[in-house]
Design goal:
binds S-adenosylmethionine; 20 helices; N-utilizing Substance Protein B Homolog, Chain A
Length: 474
């Protein structure tokens, strides 16, 4: 192989994503380990693979202007070489001749000499302008078609730009949405750092800070790891801490912090659960995570519950993910149980749980920064399919909660059809539920809008765009 190992690893990642629907964040680290790339090559491979996947919308628009036939008619291998080349030319400091020559070499290895000549000609055209100049040439006029412009400039599918804009407008107001949409899309294109969650009773934020992490912005459990592999930390290896976005921590902490009501329907004053009996239907003794896999939030809740004498039942549909939950809960003291079950047809009795988390399967449009290829895989039809499931899960979660019990409805998507509209629809059909103002249970977190639900944003909070609605059975 004449292509250098970093570019080859990036190319093979793009191919695995295209051919096998692989996830880049799973494939690439394995490739880097198997091929023993050194730290420098590993960093370059990661930058190239993630950058080309994320920037596909922009790069394809530019490449389409440089290729004499529709991109769909190119060999998919050659198109991936071109995307990698475009990323190097337009978004890195790699010298243009190195970007072009290495891409030509890669095309020769991946395809044939004819393809290599074509890659050479196309990338030389790409190299004539910088990114902003190209966007001005190939994107729609921002005044006439701001969504279309942003879709090309910030490399998001147009329907995703539209959905994010709608959600920003609903939560922050029309003017703020207009002012902030570009920042939000830009934040989606920045790789997030590693955030750790110290599991209460097992690890403190301070311990992680001593190991070189920085304290989280808002959650007392959160710590940011500016560099290095989290797996080098003993607390992570032993499961006393986990890798978890701060937004995910905040919504789990909010569920644990809000007061449950008495069975009669009155709110228990600051019901901390201290002295809880531990019996089914007891005051604050039995918690449920309805969609628990792979177990990040379940581990946080189980750790908090263990401190208060509450036990957690963690349900998960997919058996292999239920096994991951079991593993995540193993280091946590206290009593908890993992069940492989369909949350829409729960195998437990109604009206028993004091606190219920439903962290519903969703499009993940709030976590685009973590999964570089996911924005291109999702389709508008996914939203309606998932919304139907989300409504069933929320209804089942409410039925599982006892009168006075709390339900947190959570998604890592800000799409209105998966968030507010799910809650509105489900609540419209029943008179035994009240919605709480969730904002007081995220203390110190700014810019939470008008409530009662909470939508976090990468560009405002530095978290994934987690959604939270807090509900209580009457
Ligand atoms: C957003 S993820 C949950 C993430 C998890 N709470 C965490 O923090 O690690 C949603 C999970 O719901 C599971 N799921 C999908 N349909 C389900 C159903 N009908 N019942 C229970 N779990 C389901 C999926 O397999 C997936 O693991």
């Amino acid at each position: 192989m004449r292509t250098d190992p970093a570019r080859l690893a990036a190319y093979d990642t793009l191919r695995a994503v295209a051919e096998r629907e692989a996830y880049a964040n799973l494939v690439l680290p394995r490739l880097l380990t198997d091929r023993r790339l050194d730290a420098r090559d590993a960093a370059l491979a990661t930058e190239l693979a993630y950058g080309a996947l994320r920037g596909r919308g922009t790069y394809d628009a530019i490449l389409a202007a440089c290729v004499d036939r529709p991109l769909a008619q190119l060999d998919p291998e050659v198109l991936d070489v071109l995307r990698l080349g475009a990323h190097q030319l337009l978004a890195t400091r790699i010298p243009p001749h190195a970007a072009v020559d290495s891409s030509v070499e890669l095309a020769r290895e991946a395809s044939h000499d004819g393809a290599a000549r074509m890659v050479n000609a196309v990338l030389r055209k790409v190299a004539r302008r910088d990114l902003r100049e190209w966007v001005d040439v190939v994107a729609p006029d921002p005044q006439r078609d701001p969504e279309g412009y942003l879709a090309v400039y910030r490399s998001h599918p147009a329907w995703v730009v539209s959905a994010l804009w709608d959600s920003l407008a609903a939560h922050r107001g029309k003017e703020a949405a207009y002012a902030q949409i570009d920042k939000l899309l830009e934040a989606d294109n920045l790789r997030p750092g590693v955030t750790l969650a110290a599991r209460p009773g097992l690890c403190e934020q301070a311990e992680l800070v001593k190991q070189g992490a920085e304290p989280g912005r808002y959650a007392p459990t959160a710590a940011y790891l500016p560099e290095g592999d989290p797996a080098r930390l003993e607390a992570v290896v032993r499961g006393r801490a986990g890798v978890q976005d701060e937004g995910s921590q905040l919504v789990a902490l909010a569920l644990a912090a809000a007061p449950v009501g008495e069975r009669t329907g009155h709110t228990g004053a600051g019901a901390s659960g201290a002295g809880a009996s531990g019996e089914v239907g007891g005051r604050d003794a039995l918690w449920l995570d309805l969609c628990a896999g792979p177990g990040g939030k379940a581990a946080l809740l189980a750790a908090i519950g263990a401190q208060r004498g509450a036990r957690l039942v963690a349900a998960e549909l997919a058996p292999h993910r239920a096994r991951l939950v079991k593993r995540a809960l193993q280091p946590i003291h206290g009593v908890h149980k993992v069940v492989a079950a369909d949350g829409t047809r729960p195998p437990w009795r109604r009206d028993v749980f004091d606190r219920v988390l439903v962290d519903a399967p969703c499009t993940g449009l709030g976590a685009l920064r973590r999964r570089p290829e996911s924005r291109w895989r999702r389709e508008p039809a996914d939203v309606s399919r998932l919304a139907a499931l989300q409504k069933k899960l929320l209804a089942a979660a409410l039925d599982s909660a006892r009168p006075g019990g709390l339900v947190a409805y959570v998604t890592c998507s800000p799409h209105l059809a998966e968030t507010r509209l799910v809650v509105t629809d489900v609540l419209a059909g029943r008179d035994d539920v009240e919605q709480l103002d969730a904002r007081p249970y995220l203390p110190g977190v700014p810019e939470l809008g008008d409530g009662p639900d909470v939508q976090l944003w990468p560009h405002l909070h530095g978290t994934d765009a987690m959604y939270l609605a807090l509900l209580r059975r009457r």
